[in-house]
Amino acid sequence: MPSLRQTLKAILPEALHPAITGAYEIIGDIALLTLPDALLPYQALIGATLLTIDTRLRVVAHRLPISGEFRIGGLEIIAGEPPLATIHKENGLRFRVDVERVYFSARLAAERLRLAQLCQQGEQTLVVGSGVAPLPLTLAAHGAAATVVGVEKNADAHALAVENCRLNRGHGHKVTPVNADFHALTPADLGLFDRVVIAMPETALTALSHCLQFVSLGGFLHLYIFQDENRPLPARDMDTILAAAGCQALSIAAVRCGHCGRARYRYRLDCRLG
Ligand SMILES: C[S@@+](CC[C@H](N)C(=O)[O-])C[C@H]1O[C@@H](n2cnc3c(N)ncnc32)[C@H](O)[C@@H]1O
Which residues lie closer than 8 Å to 166 by C-beta, 6 or more apart? Predict the structure, then answer.
């Protein structure tokens, strides 16, 4: 398959070549790309070109920045036919996704698998900000977790999570999707967990103080955060929040697990509570 970048270089004016990145994300049969302003007058041509060279695709959409509590970005179809809903396959699982209504990133597939490999036999796990349940289902299918509870506030994402548990027979029965704002929940509602994952990088440190109460003694906590390359990781902030809640960390480690903009990275902070 010829690359989008090379194909566009052959058809767009030379002055625009520095603006061509050729990068796009595939979710099911949908391609999402972010076009710089200079390329917007050519968006229909770029979309049609991508549909021609990548025959897995049905529709191409230009992505506007992600925003808001539910982390959804505006989308504009530039080639092909709606809907912007599809079935996405990853790690042997199938997820129904509506990219206009829910957050979903295909780029996190390898990280979901890496986290699943950390789970130990028979664990009770909680995922806070679980979306359409890609992480709960990956932990259930590829990890040793006995049960996974996924808490998600976006009702559309929750409805798809319930459907995805049905779609993935053999694993879905281990997952319980809960449609709620995590702030409204306590251990009296959900119980305690051997492992808690906070999958909301924009607000992870503020969510931490509330979510600590769900981790059992000796349990594990994983926190996804975004951080600029030249800034120190907030391990000390995490320590301070833990101390304020009367908790102690036996260990805190940071793992870089993704790139999310110029010199900005996604990290996973792994912590064991003592
Ligand atoms: C970055 S997305 C991650 C979704 C999912 N873990 C995934 O990887 O596809 C963060 C999720 O947290 C959800 N969320 C935001 N605030 C929440 C809250 N207060 N309670 C529960 N979920 C929340 C959003 O709707 C969104 O689906």
Answer: 172
Give the separation between CA 245 and CA 238, rounded to whole angstroms.
11
pLDDT digits (tens, 9 = 90+) for 40-58: 999 999 999 999 999 999 9
Report whether residue 154 contacts ligand 1, using a CB cutoff of 6 Å. yes
Regarding beta strands 59-67 and 72-80, do their DSSP bridges make them parallel or antiparallel, or are they unpaired? antiparallel
pTM score, whole prediction? 0.94
User: DSSP alpha helices (H): ranges in the chain?
Assistant: 4-11, 43-53, 109-116, 134-142, 155-167, 187-190, 204-211, 235-244
| Any ligand 1 atom below 6 A from CB of 126 | no
Sorted by where each starts, the structural domains of the chain and their CATH numbers stand as 4-82 (3.30.300.110), 105-273 (3.40.50.150)
Contacting residues for 68 by C-beta, under 8 A, at least 6 apart: none
Q: Residue 167 in contact with residue 192, Cβ under 8 Å? A: no
With a 6 Å cutoff on the Cβ, whether 228 touches ligand 1 is no
